[in-house]
Amino acid sequence: MQLRYQFRVYPTPSQQIALARAFGCARMVFNDGLRARQEAREQGLPYVSDAELSKRVITQAKLTPERAWLGEVSAVVLQQALADLNTAYRNFFASISGKRKGRMVAPPRFRSRKDNRQAIRFTRNSRFKVLDNGRLRLPKIGDLAVRWSRALPSDPSSVAIIKDAAGRYFASFVVTTGQDETLPPVESEVGIDLGLTHFAVLSDGTKVAAPKFLRCAARRLKRLQQELSRKQKGSANRKKAVVKVARAHARVADTRRDWQHKLSTTIIRENQAVYVEDLCVVGLGRTRLAKSVHDAGWTSFAAMLEYKAARYGRTFGRVDRFFPSTRMCSDCGRINAKMTLNVRAWCCSCGSHHDRDVNAAKNVRAAGQADLNARGAHVRPGLVPAARSEAGTHPDAARPTRSVEGISVLKAERMSRR
After folding, report:
1. For residue 322, what is the DSSP state?
2. Helical (H) or strand (E) element with 273
3. Of 33, 217, 280, 361, which has the maximum CB count within 10 A?
């Protein structure tokens, strides 16, 4: 299993200049390759192959006076920039042809030096090395000081140097773990209902309050945004104010990520199987609850549960987003009418009293178990008798058909009417 380990690095001023040069060269190669393919398409020429593109924008470009400075950085960085461009094109072609699932992928676009995030990647061909003194040696950049918070499980296959909007530098290693990290089996299985008032409600009745990190930091962010709006555009003070705002947002994101990692690890360790509902976060992000939805971070939390379950030998499942987990009674299976968000508890006609979120979590667990037993089939609500008031206008539609004999009687009645 491939994992990514990220550590903070502290380059010296001269190394920061070298990294900025590498960022710029990788960005320029990416843009030159994209421009070459766009021009070929506009002129009706064949699609420029990967090998021809590399020869044109790297090998031949270094021999020209306009691009001679490309030789000042590692050639692997330039090749990896073209590899990112090729991957973006393949994802775009697979998306428009229907081979790629999910949302439509847009064609690649030009990179800007004003982007908040800059990154380059080194593979084993570049011969980067982690030294015995803990420093990271990169070609044509030097030995970077790394703050190691944990040891790498194996030798990394690649490392990406990232500069975020707050001006921080990170080294992201890709390693392959071959050791067995399967946890001892446990008997408990849990369904999770994600929400806003409570971030997660478990099927065993546990409720995890929503921290609302962005809401808590809103006052400080508002003040920093006001200070930024008063600065003159293009001035040095405005650049400093931009960094302050970016650092405040980075602090919120880091705190949220750390909290989600701790919660997801606890859930995975204590349960053999975890089931969550596949929420449409994109659609919810267009409603009046958009700020709270994005502050919750449901997608990243579900992704953590999924990869940690695969890493530690647990079972993970997603329940279809159209499954009526809230309206279905977890005791009798009856689907009731739609409820507004202010209804936090309700009673079923069978006599059961339900907490809205706990009942949804129980239904998610039951649906996930049924989906797992069906070997990947989509989870749909089961067949339950409809109430007489909800039945159609057909005279026989409201009659419950519980057996084959009942169906035969209804057919006989219809034949006699004819």
Report:
1. T
2. strand 273-277
3. 361
Pairing of strands 273-277, 189-194: parallel
Exactly one of 32, 189, 295, 357 is catalytic; which is it? 357
Give the separation between CA 381 and CA 303, rounded to whole angstroms. 25
Instruction: Provide the residue type at 297 as one letter.
Output: G
pLDDT tens-digit profile, the chain (418 residues):
889 999 999 999 999 999 999 999 999 999 999 999 999 999 999 999 999 999 999 999 999 999 999 999 999 999 999 999 999 999 999 999 989 888 889 999 999 998 889 999 999 999 999 999 999 999 999 999 999 999 998 899 999 999 999 999 999 999 988 777 889 999 999 999 999 989 999 998 899 999 999 999 999 999 999 999 999 998 999 999 999 999 999 999 999 999 999 999 999 999 999 999 888 888 888 888 899 999 999 999 999 999 999 999 999 999 988 888 888 888 888 888 888 888 888 888 888 888 888 989 999 999 888 876 664 433 433 343 433 333 333 334 333 333 333 434 334 444 444 4
Point out the catalytic residue in the list 32, 193, 295, 371: 193
Mark out the alpha helices in 197-323 (DSSP H runs): 213-216, 218-229, 236-270, 281-284, 290-296, 298-311
Distance CA 26, CA 78 (A): 5
Residue of 32, 277, 306, 371 with catalytic role: 277
Burial 293-315 (b: 16+ CB within 10 A, else e): bebbbbebbbebbbebbeeeebe
Q: Is 193 among the residues known to form the active site?
A: yes
Q: At what angle do helices 218-229 and 236-270 cross, to 10 degrees?
A: 160
